[in-house]
């Protein structure tokens, strides 16, 4: 099993009020590279800061990292347009940063990105991959893609109050600029993602299509963004089983409609509740208050803990340690669990 | 602990008769990317073939991968001029392929490569790194660097009969073309590696210098190539303890003189014998016959096994499995050891 984190950029994130995936718009460009660092190294290495929301909610990478420290799973980064610095190697699928979705073409190299990711997904020998994303602004582009494909246009938000009206207006403008009406790109996923998507969606969709071709079990770790990727895969004619693993925060968000979306796409939905309401700690309170909700494969990480003999209490304890180390300056990175020496 | 594999290219490898790190000169360009794939994924993914020598000796990546499957350590690739394809993410230190050492400047971006690698090495939070290389032709460039620095100019070879005369002629030509006499670059490592080195040497040296700056323990996993990198580090004024971990095949090769070199550089030498002469199997016979000897961190992998509770017999058994899977077409890749579920 390998957890694959697809990291990239869309200029859509710069639209004021549309994303909270970074302390301010300038720092937001560093979020994907930093999230990858936190997952792989346990701390930002060449990235400058640990991503936090404007109100201080820490990146979900803290949760996924905590799960990694407990379970020791392999990871792999995919560069689908990382703009800032990262000290974590990532497979390059040739994608540049995505343009603002209101441009006629948001992802000029959508087809090439999809194909390179597909080839790579087909080449991966892992029996199972858990695929997550980190791309600020990605729920807006997800909304764009779902709308273009004619799927239920509902997405979540990193903000407690989902700025859905803003997103819908932005997507409407984007579809207009691309000469598409809602549903015009049904059965034509590359057109959808090229017009109003982002490079991470193209890469996740390609990776998924390639992985299932080669018999790899795929768990899409996320909420509405990964659901949009699943929609692209289904519209590409790929019928293989797919699982969407998300958090209770996304599932509880009616404006997201993730359960209905999964159902209409023929994708199995699994929802895990990390029990953050059982504790009172800055690492987790903001999630209970409606911030962040998902991202950086958090739903998949929770699912992996659920499948293991570790408990949610173990995870919460480890989240506190990771948070304290990163955001309270408490000491050096902890290495992920390694097997006992000499074990098989 | 993390095993870092620095992969790159030098056109020097194309000189007929100088390297056996690939089945033929055309395939040799794929060796570094394929070695990285074998280490990270257990098989070539986007790289086309498992590297073997012209007489069929399998790449030492098979040994390092076997050790990884037993011990489960983390890995990281560094791209110091990979020419072929690879499905393994690698941190880009900005190096292009190195030119033939007989050119006036073999590594035009030596300083930038060294500095980027140094910054990255300093940023790595691991308590210990084990650094290896994969670059066909790299013992010739190592000879060039050692000669330019005024160190004992002795190197090993992937060929049973070390073509030392050929290498010395090539290096003499290279020094001439760069306007250097032996020893002219003493205390000036960037001049040495820029004139007659390769991008992997620049990257390994930078990575090492940066790692020790940040308190990371460094084990250089290799023979004469890593010794040349150690020489660059010493000539950069870095006095921190360094360990060179190599194989008994290199240590037994008098033409290599690795013990004397380590001693004069103030580097601790550890030598591990994998006991390949105790078995009769194509995966290991060629080493006993004098081929390959080292590479792809093999000496470091043997040392890590030695430090663990796994035995050399365990390793040899696992080498057979990896070999059979890769070169006898026996089945899918095996995932490296993962800790028991719910471990600490």
From TrEMBL, chains A, B:
Keyword Chaperone: no
Keyword set includes Glycosyltransferase: yes
One term of GO molecular function: glycosyltransferase activity
Organism domain of life: Archaea
InterPro entries reported for this sequence: Nict_dMeBzImd_PRibTrfase, Nict_dMeBzImd_PRibTrfase_arc, Nict_dMeBzImd_PRibTrfase_sf
Keywords tagged on the record: Glycosyltransferase, Transferase
Family annotation (PANTHER family): PTHR38811, UPF0284 PROTEIN SLL1500
Similarity field: Belongs to the UPF0284 family.
Protein name: UPF0284 protein ACFQFD_14670
Natural source organism: Halobaculum halobium
Gene from which the chain derives: cobT
């Amino acid at each position: 099993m390998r957890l694959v984190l697809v990291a990239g950029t869309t200029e859509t994130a710069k639209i004021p009020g549309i994303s909270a995936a970074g302390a301010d718009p300038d720092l937001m460009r560093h979020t994907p590279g930093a999230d990858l660092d936190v997952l792989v190294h346990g701390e930002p290495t060449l990235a400058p800061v640990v991503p936090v929301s404007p109100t201080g909610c820490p990146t979900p990478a803290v949760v996924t990292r905590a799960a990694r420290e407990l379970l020791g799973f392999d990871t792999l980064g995919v560069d689908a347009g990382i703009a800032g610095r990262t000290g974590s190697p990532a497979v390059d699928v040739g994608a540049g940063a995505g343009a603002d979705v209101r441009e006629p073409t948001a992802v000029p190299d959508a087809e090439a990105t999809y194909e390179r990711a597909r080839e790579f997904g087909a080449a991966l020998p892992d029996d199972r991959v858990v695929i997550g994303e980190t791309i600020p602004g990605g729920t807006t582009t997800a909304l764009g893609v779902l709308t273009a494909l004619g799927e239920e246009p509902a997405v979540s938000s990193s903000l407690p109050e989902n700025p859905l009206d803003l997103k819908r207006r932005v997507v409407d403008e984007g579809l207009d600029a691309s000469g598409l009406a809602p549903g015009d790109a049904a059965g034509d996923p590359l057109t959808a993602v090229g017009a109003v998507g982002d490079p991470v969606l193209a890469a996740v969709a390609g990776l998924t299509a390639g992985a299932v071709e080669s018999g790899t079990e795929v768990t899409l770790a996320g909420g509405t963004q990964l659901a949009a990727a699943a929609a692209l895969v289904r519209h590409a004619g790929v019928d293989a089983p797919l699982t969407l693993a998300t958090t209770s925060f996304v599932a509880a968000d009616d404006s997201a409609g993730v359960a209905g979306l999964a159902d209409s796409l023929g994708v199995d939905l699994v929802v895990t509740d990390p029990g953050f309401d059982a504790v009172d700690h800055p690492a987790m309170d903001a999630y209970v208050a409606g911030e962040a909700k998902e991202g950086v494969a958090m739903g998949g990480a929770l699912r992996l803990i659920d499948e293991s003999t570790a408990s949610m209490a173990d995870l919460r304890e480890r989240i506190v340690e990771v948070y304290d180390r990163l955001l309270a300056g408490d000491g050096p990175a902890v290495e992920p669990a390694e097997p006992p020496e000499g074990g098989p």
